[in-house]
Specification:
The chain is of the alpha+beta class. It folds into 2 domains: 80 residues, no CATH class; 240 residues, 4-Layer Sandwich (Deoxyribonuclease I, Chain A). The strands form 3 sheets. The protein has a 6-stranded mixed beta sheet. It has a 6-stranded mixed beta sheet with strand order 7-8-9-10-12-11. A two-stranded antiparallel sheet has the order 1-2. Strand 3, helix 5 and strand 4 form a beta-alpha-beta unit. Helix 1 runs antiparallel to helix 3, helix 1 packs parallel to helix 4 and helix 3 packs antiparallel against helix 4. The protein is elongated and about 75 Å long.
Length: 339
């Protein structure tokens, strides 16, 4: 009798906890308030796992249909809310393949690659250039590199004939016979924002913006008030950095085609990406295949490395590709320029 009463109470308690967590999760990820940044830094599918555990365990205690309903609600929430599930809409799209990007509709496809190199800390004696070179990219965005790293990668990729620019710990490299016409960078502050104008041999010009936004807060001691405060401030800093980058872009290259990528240190659901939605397309959301998360390389749970482009470009293919030379995966995107 007492055991039966305990099972019922435990079951209803777990159902209640699962419902409360679901309501909080829906509100936090739909509204993305800064005060809950510490909550949403954890992927929605992780909270879904906790909610599913509670509801499934409640069914074991109660054998009640309500717990199955909640389990189904959680499953749908994760499926619809997780960025990782959005590639389902891209079924039928192909992934980039090593080698030249080729042609589409009679026009050359532009291949862009971004990689946080982690200062070569994984293997100081070996650069990631060999892993990058097999993809034969036209434009490479590098973050967390020293100047000699950028030169080394440019020389190895394009046999010493590529063009490149370095700003702080960022680097942009483009292939042989392509030229960087202009460089525009912040005149003050410690912003890892780099912007250049790239000119192809056929005369086409476009802007390239290489970002490395402020590193994410990693404190997950959610029972501490200072943890919540740190995440809130951290998000606001990145929002300000991205706003500055877009302001510089708007002031210096209005109306020009733009490729913008790098290490955002924020997943696609983060509200900083709302600044990009009016003018940019996320290449992976539009054409990505496979598991798109890029950090940490071995068990990637966040898609913080991204490539975006203005609507002059049509994303054809995009994927996250592993490399043993960094703690990030690199992102490869094939973009078709407008006619």
């Amino acid at each position: 009798m007492k055991s039966s009463r305990f099972r019922r109470r435990a079951g209803w308690l777990l159902i209640g906890l699962s419902l409360l967590l679901h309501l909080l999760t829906i509100y936090a990820f739909a509204r993305q308030p800064d005060k809950l940044a510490a909550f949403t830094v954890v992927p929605i599918w992780a909270w879904g796992g906790v909610g599913l555990f509670c509801s499934i365990t409640a069914f074991w205690f109660l054998r009640a249909p309500l717990s199955l309903v909640i389990t189904g609600v959680w499953a749908m929430t994760v499926l619809l809310g997780a960025d990782e599930a959005r590639v389902i809409a891209n079924l039928g799209k192909s992934a980039p393949v090593p080698g030249p990007a080729g042609f589409a509709d009679g026009r050359p496809v532009l291949r862009v690659l971004t990689l946080n190199c982690n200062y070569f800390k994984y293997d100081p004696l070996k650069s990631p250039a060999a892993d990058i070179r097999r993809w034969d990219p036209d434009v490479v965005l590098l973050q967390e590199v020293h100047p000699h790293h950028v030169r080394e990668i440019a020389d190895l990729l394009y046999d010493g004939e590529g063009d490149y620019r370095i700003y702080m710990t960022n680097g942009i490299v483009t292939r042989s016979h392509w030229r960087i016409q202009r460089e525009v960078n912040p005149q003050q502050g410690n912003f890892r924002v780099q912007q250049v104008t790239v000119r192809r041999p056929d005369g086409m010009e476009f802007e390239v913006v290489n970002l490395h936004l402020t590193s994410a807060a990693t404190d997950l001691r959610l029972w501490r008030r200072d943890c919540w405060r740190a995440h809130r401030i951290n998000r606001q800093v990145r929002l300000r950095e991205l706003a500055i980058a877009l302001t510089i872009l708007d002031d210096t290259a209005p109306g020009r085609p733009v490729i913008l990528g790098g290490d955002f240190n924020a997943p696609p659901a983060d509200p900083i990406h709302s600044l990009l939605k009016p003018d940019f397309v996320d290449a992976f959301s539009a054409a990505g295949t496979g598991w798109g998360n890029t950090y940490q390389r071995r068990i990637p749970i966040h898609r913080i490395d991204q490539i975006h482009c203005t609507r002059y470009f049509l994303p054809l293919r995009c994927a996250a590709v592993t490399t043993r030379r960094s703690d990030h995966r690199m992102v490869v995107a094939d973009l078709l320029p407008g006619s």
